[in-house]
Amino acid sequence: MTATATGRLGTFDGRDAVVFERTFTAPITDVWAAVTESDRLERWIGTWTGDPASGSVQFRMNAEGDEVPEATYVIERCEPPRLLGIKAGDSAGVWTLAVELSESGGVTTLRLSQVIEDPDQIESTGAGWDYYLDRLVTAEAGGDVSSFDWDRDYWPALRGHYTDLHTDLRKRLGAG
Fold it and tell me: Domains plus CATH for the chain?
């Protein structure tokens, strides 16, 4: 498998973000379920526990080994089946994410934006989102995500693209 870097600089709610898109030949409600229901998330990224109505859930990624701790994901916006906005924080920093869905002619487009809280995160998180979103597409098509190899196909293979985005953003921000 040869992975492709798809992230680009964009905005979400007027803030700089790295933006990714994927398309699915599926109804918007099905794609919404794939990104919000714990048993569907488990197929490609992780699981959550808790009560979303409380405003947060505990999330654990499942493709990064057993040592990854649970993190609290605060649900900032939830407008089914079109928009989910979450914020999380861990030792690596703060993560502000938005998933926007739109449907036209039986095709649903997923747009994931990671707001850039720290430009230095782009180099590592960009390739990570390509990895996870490719797993999502494969899982939703009924494929086997175990064939995805982070170390061979994504990191450091896609690093150059995200290093360039990081450089472009720092120039745009006047930081060099």
Answer: 8-172 (3.30.530.20)
